[in-house]
UniProtKB/TrEMBL annotation:
BP GO terms, sorted: heparan sulfate proteoglycan biosynthetic process
Family that this chain belongs to: Belongs to the sulfotransferase 3 family.
Annotated localization: Golgi apparatus membrane
Protein name, as recorded: EOG090X088H
Gene Ontology CC terms: Golgi membrane
A single MF term (Gene Ontology): heparan sulfate 2-sulfotransferase activity
Domain of life: Eukaryota
Main location: Golgi
Organism whose genome encodes this protein: Daphnia galeata
Signal peptide span: none
Quaternary structure annotation from Swiss-Prot or TrEMBL: Homotrimer.
Length: 347
């Protein structure tokens, strides 16, 4: 009886040892997998974080697996040139580019269309990161219960933008040189248009960049609305990742490449090549663009619309200069800034 008990005890010990070994082996295998995954993730993050632009080591934001960018482009701000970079990079950097074409080239949508668009853009799973662009006023996705995309934009000195658009309607551009524009053949200069008081050159027509950032509220589109001006500034700061200026296109691209390398890796090199080949304003307005005379400029400067549009532009410039300095020159040592957590309670 004692011998049988001893055998049972020995068998139990043996089985226990076998189970212990199996558990230990399983644990070690799982641990090795976690270490391997951690190394791979660390290397991936390191590649993203060690982005260099102009010789500086730059901090980067690592996007989620399927981020969505929305560039609600303002007309005649260099948007075609910038979007061209996205189309050049999309295959290499593995993201989709989609042009949003609204019926009749409208800049705003009805409430029902806003709802459908917000839900469609947020829920359409392309299985790749996506870059949407179109001439659409800012849309508050959260109003419809949809996660917002990452908004970016470019704006331009307001009178320069208006003059560029004026001659664009008459002479087209190099992007689609054979397309007949609706004012083709009209050789009236911008100065003469203003002097004659034609509706096309009314200072109220400057009112575009403010409402584009203000959004779909009725007051956004009232020329000279101080409420729209304040709303546009608020949206620029709170709801846009980055707003650049046409006059600093290269720097705008550099900041985007440093911040969103998954989309814009290699963009700065492409735009530098374009600048070298004298295509910095491609698609530029063809033939000529006559600068407005001083009396024309003075007439615009006396209008409330110009004052608010210009103040909004200067506000955007100051913000971009600040972001650019903090991104392309993180600190005086030229090294990447770090952050860490401390004094964590309870332990």
């Amino acid at each position: 009886m004692a011998m049988r008990t001893c055998n049972i005890s020995a068998r139990s010990v043996f089985l226990f040892n076998i189970l212990t070994v199996l558990v230990l082996v399983t644990y070690l295998v799982d641990l090795e997998k976690k270490i391997a995954n951690a190394k791979a993730s660390s290397q991936h993050n390191s590649d993203l974080l060690n982005t260099q632009v102009n010789g500086a080591l730059l901090p980067s934001i690592v996007p989620s697996q399927k981020p969505t960018l929305f560039y609600n482009r303002v007309p005649k701000t260099g948007s075609t040139s910038f979007v061209g970079l996205a189309y050049d990079l999309c295959s290499r950097n593995k993201f989709k580019v989609l042009h949003v074409n609204v019926s009749k080239n409208a800049h705003t949508m009805s409430l029902s269309d806003q709802l459908r668009f917000a839900r469609n853009l947020s829920n359409w799973d392309l299985k790749q990161p996506s870059f949407y662009h179109g001439h659409i006023a800012y849309l508050d996705f959260t109003k419809f219960g949809s996660p917002p995309p990452i908004f970016i934009n470019l704006i331009r000195q307001p009178l320069d933008r208006m003059v560029s658009y004026y001659y664009f309607l008459r002479y087209g551009d190099d992007f689609r040189p054979h397309l007949i524009r609706r004012k083709q053949g009209n050789k009236t200069s911008f100065d003469d248009c203003v002097k004659e008081g034609q509706a096309e050159c009314d200072p109220n027509n400057l009112w575009l960049q403010v409402p584009f950032f203000c959004g779909h509220h009725a007051d956004c589109w009232i020329p000279g609305s101080s409420w729209a001006f304040e709303q546009a500034k608020n949206n620029l700061i709170k709801n846009y990742l980055l707003v650049g200026v046409t006059e600093q296109m290269e720097e705008f691209v550099a900041v985007l490449e440093a911040t969103l390398p998954n989309f814009f890796k290699g963009a700065l090199k492409l735009i530098e090549i374009s600048f070298t080949e004298n295509k910095s304003e491609n698609p530029k307005t063809k033939r000529f663009k006559i600068p407005p005379k001083s009396e024309t400029i003075l007439r615009f400067k006396n209008s409330t619309v110009w004052q608010l549009e210009n103040e909004f532009y200067q506000f955007a410039v100051r913000q971009f200069e600040y972001v650019k300095s903090r991104t392309l020159n993180p600190d005086f040592s030229g090294k990447e800034q770090q952050f860490f957590y401390e004094k964590i309670r309870p332990k």
